[in-house]
Amino acid sequence: MSTQPAHQHVPYRNRKERQWRTASGLKSTISVLNVALIATLVFSSWSVFQLQPWNDVATRDAAANSVTQWSDVNPYGVNTFLSGEVESWKRDRTMAMVAEAGIGWIRQGFAWSEIEPENDVYWDAKYQQDAWAKFDEIVALAERYGVRIIARLDHTPDWARPPGSDPGTPPTDPNDFGDFVHAFVSRYQGRVNFIQVWNEPNLAREWGGVIDPAGYATLLATAAERAREANPNIVILSAPMAMTTENSGRAQDELGYWQALYDHGVSESFDIMSANAYGLADHYAAEPSASVLNVRRVELLRELAVRNGDGHKSIWFNEFGWNAAPAEFPLEQLTWSRVDEELQAEWTAGGVEYAQQTWDWFGMASIWYFRQVGNIAPDRADYYFRMVDLEFTPRDVYRSVQASSSRMQVAGVGHFGELETPISPYGRWAIIKNTGASNGRYMLGESGSSVAVRFTGSALDLRLVDSGSNGTFSVTIFDGATMDGEGSQPRVFSIEPGQDSVRVTSTALPHPASAAPQTRTALITVDDGSQLAIDGVSVYYEPSYRNLLAGTAVAAATLVALIWLRRQLAR
After folding, report:
1. What is the mean pLDDT of the chain?
2. Would you say residue 91 lies in a domain?
3. How many CA atoms lie within 13 A of 294 on its CB side?
């Protein structure tokens, strides 16, 4: 009688155990794949949300000649008193805060009486130095911080006006002022591209005690002729007229004064019309009237300019804002009326945005004022225009302007001119008038100069003008709207004859993998021995579906695997 080994039934048990283990493994794998599928679907959904294909990407039309010249510029400027600062660090700190707020312009006085205290003598006897020295420093500071200058030229020196008169008196001989303007424009050619000729001549105290539109028309024509001799590309702003309804020996309303100027043929003597636009106690959108002083009063000035054939010229506000003197201030001292600081902040930024969105003839607004130098006491109402205190403490109005400007800082998809907010110039950039360029001008940079372009998109084209210049320029890309941190390795581009654009960055360059447009900053630097003629930039956006496609592929593969595993489990 044979006997069976004790382990005869083990293979049967092993087979069952293997089947159980296989089924258990398949179930575990299916569970893992289910989790993976859910994760992949979540990732793909997130990618779709990032792409937002249901939304159109905001675009701007291609650049074309504007209805009005010089209107496509950074709309924020401030009035500064840097020449009154004794300490250089205060000038530096002021300019740094201007730039940090996204303000693109300073309107700064270059007093004839300080620069040429004696006929053809440019020497500061008080400080025993070149009278140009501190003004050279101001110009260099503006170039370093990416801020453009509007140079206000006025204040007659003793030798050029009648004895006993004050600096607001016009020169006895307009040609003396013309010589000064020629010297100024020659010295800062390609560095200071915008000049304002005189200030508020419709007030007798600003014109030797009389109202004389013919006299100002002559002075402006003389200054324009000499300025253009020195630099045919100089941009000339008229004097802004004081806002007033008075017509007397002390003042003439600005509308009547401007009509008198046009009657004297002043149109050819300036490129941009300047205006003052104080709000007093009115909201910036309050209705205009010839008998009311408020911001929209400039609409009446615009209508006058159009009637006189100057509809192609923009209007820049060389003094703009609201006074925030304390409520207890004596009424007779409130020349500009008053609002509280909260309204000052809200209406200043809101007023600039309103002007930019409403008037195609508006250029920019120089807020009165940024910071004084200690010569205005708190018992004066004009103390309370300041954006920044003497100790460099920003007021509410500074912060509101900074917030407003930040919303304009980044170029979206579309075309932007070289003077617009997303483009900051550093170094020496000359404005060149050229009918072949968009909006009739471009900017020409020298060796070592640079521009920072903040943009959101997948590609950036630099628009060029064939100026006869050649050489190379370098491009460094930074993530975000600042140049903090380490940028990309610089790429060098050649400037080719006849080239009208060059793509300086695209999706081929390192950038975050998500498909939504990313904000980046391109620093474009003119290389040694080169010049670069920039006519603006164009931003493009082509979404990358890399993440979405990858997620979809993984989800599909996971789903196929799950179906196969479930069939195996069902056997």
Report:
1. 88
2. yes
3. 15
